[in-house]
Amino acid sequence: MNIGEVSKRAGLPKKTIRYYEDIGLVTPLRDTNGYRSFRDSDMHKLAFMGRSRALGFTIEDCRNLLALWDDQDRASADVRTIAKEHLAQIESKIVDLQAIQETLTLLVKECAGDDRPDCPILKTLEQFPMK
Amino acid sequence: MNIGEVSKRAGLPKKTIRYYEDIGLVTPLRDTNGYRSFRDSDMHKLAFMGRSRALGFTIEDCRNLLALWDDQDRASADVRTIAKEHLAQIESKIVDLQAIQETLTLLVKECAGDDRPDCPILKTLEQFPMK
DNA sequence: CTTGACCTTCCAGTAACTGGAGGCCTTACT
DNA sequence: AGTAAGGCCTCCAGTTACTGGAAGGTCAAG
């Protein structure tokens, strides 16, 4: 399978697939003309990557997950630990963003948004201690 | 005022302040020994930056906000537009993260997390169409 | 034999810093 | 006078996960 086909099937840009090869996540074979030749197992790995990345796992997390995936003797606890840590990070990010959202919503509401220069948003950025 | 003092007062790392000078956000004076010498106005700008960045505005947004801040004839609508766009992005990011959070929570719940190799998290990453 | 769609590599850029090396300046203490 | 600590300087490189583009080889159709 050539890269274009893999790209379509895995839903990843060709650039990304080449990049994943660069950093050693997949190692496709090569045809005599130099073209990458992907096996089904490469395809699977890439699809796995796509899904893991869509869930926000870092590349390094993905690398570890792939290794666990390959390891028939893995303990599911190892996978769970990675997922739980990631989940915790997602949750703390949500909390942070929600705080920002609240503040911004307030500011936008308070600002007249007309052609006068008076602006509570700027005033806040100027003065608010914020932490 | 030297960079150390400014760093403390503005709550920004020295490295960041130097970086902000590099990209033209502040232009402190220089003492004869080459040390940066920050005026109150520089200090204010940096504090403004710190607060804007804490609200998640990009550097370019900050640059625009600073320009509007400096412009006595600005229209508050311009500021409001920037803030509203940013708010929209924050909100969409929250939605994305919440979707991820849901999926992950489910997966973590389903996974036994013991020393057996059977793991629904990996199974999902392997198979789930996900979009 | 040329056109277009593939594929290749390599270089550079993104956002917003952060770390570190190597080295000067200042101040205080012995 | 010497020295040690701490602050300051510049410059280079690395981070994350790609993405864009240039220059060029390959392949199938007409």
Model description:
The structure is a homodimer of 131-residue chains. With 131 residues, the first copy, chain A, is mainly alpha-helical. Chain A has helices at 3-10, 14-22, 40-54, 59-70, 76-110, 120-127; strands at residues 29-30, 36-37. In chain A, strand 1 (29-30) and strand 2 (36-37) form a beta hairpin. The first copy, chain A, contains 6 helices and 2 strands; from the N terminus they run H-H-E-E-H-H-H-H. The first copy, chain A, has 2 domains: 1-74, Multidrug-efflux Transporter Regulator, Chain: A, Domain 2 (Orthogonal Bundle), CATH 1.10.1660; 76-131. The structure holds a DNA duplex (30 and 30 nucleotides).
- What class do helices, strands and sheet pairing of chain A give? mainly alpha
How would you write the strand order of the largest sheet of chain A?
1-2
Give the count of helical stretches of chain A: 6
The SSE order of chain A reads HHEEHHHH
Using a beta-carbon cutoff below 8 angstroms, give the protein chain pair with the largest interface and the number of residues from each chain: A-B, 57 and 57 residues
Oligomer kind:
homodimer
Q: What is the name of the CATH class of the largest domain in chain A?
A: Mainly Alpha
- What fraction, in percent, of the residue positions of chain A are helical? 55-70%
Q: Into how many domains do the coordinates of chain A divide?
A: 2
Runs of chain A in which pLDDT lies below 50 for 5 or more consecutive residues are none
CATH topology of the largest domain in chain A: Multidrug-efflux Transporter Regulator, Chain: A, Domain 2
| Overall shape of chain A | elongated
Number of strands of chain A: 2
Task: State the distance separating the first and last CA atoms of chain A.
Answer: 55 Å
